[in-house]
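Moderator note: this is an archived Q&A kept for reference. The question asked for a predicted structure of one protein chain; the sequence and the answer are reproduced below.
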Amino acid sequence: MATLVRSSLNIFPRFAQRLTAFRAYQSASLATATATESKSVDEKWILASAVCLERYPIIVPPLTEKEERFNINLKKIELERSILCDHELKHLDDLLKKKQTEESDTSHHVEKVGGTADMTEEGKLTAVDMEDAWEREALNFSEGSRETVADQENDLQSLNRKLDKKLYLVVKQRLGEVEHWILPQGDHVENESMRETAERALGKLCGDSVQSKFMGNAPCGFYRNIFSKTIKEKLCANGQKVFFFRAEYSQGDITVSDHVSDYKWLTIEEMAEYLQPDYYKKCKMFMSD
């Protein structure tokens, strides 16, 4: 019988390769199952969802040096390749009418009264008159300051600051017995999607008046927090896995709850002063100015 099997393997080399691969797969599966069964029950993870609530810029940020040079070159190209606009055509038409009027007055020896102030039809503005009016209006215009009162007072709870940058909401939230500066988060419950957990956490921690628009159902980031030995034994869990969901702020005021003692609207650079380094590193991966 053994001789017959060996001869069959010689005849069917592909079958022999598959048989060897199958036996290796069986051994690996058995080893994985044994390792899984030997794991302790305290290696489970607590799932949580956090909200990356961002306020978009309200005004355009100032141009950089490179953008300013590019803008100047773009205007030069546009000027060189452009055709006459309606206002320039009107100016040429005014000059032509002025010349025709002067020639007509000269040929008929008509004396000019009041100079050349009214060179076209009565009550009709010329292109030059329109330019003078625009210039007077421009002189009366004063550009508003990019710095608000909230910027001057360094009010980090105000949304009326850093108008040319994105602001992100961070809260001082109690996790267990310790408070941490983090993005608003809540633990996942059964029969609830991770996005629903994020929406519930935002309303519970910051109040129902805050209106926002969540960007999709998929998380934009992930953070894993491994508990200390004491907390592991207390919660029977190895750590916490936090899934971040991006949301756009619409309107409403923040109302802190019992689990939140403080909140701030910060830029990415300012968040480094409040968040823990490893947590901040993960958040910075899915945030942008």
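Archived answer notes: The domain at 41-60+156-284 is CATH 3.90.79.10 (Nucleoside Triphosphate Pyrophosphohydrolase).
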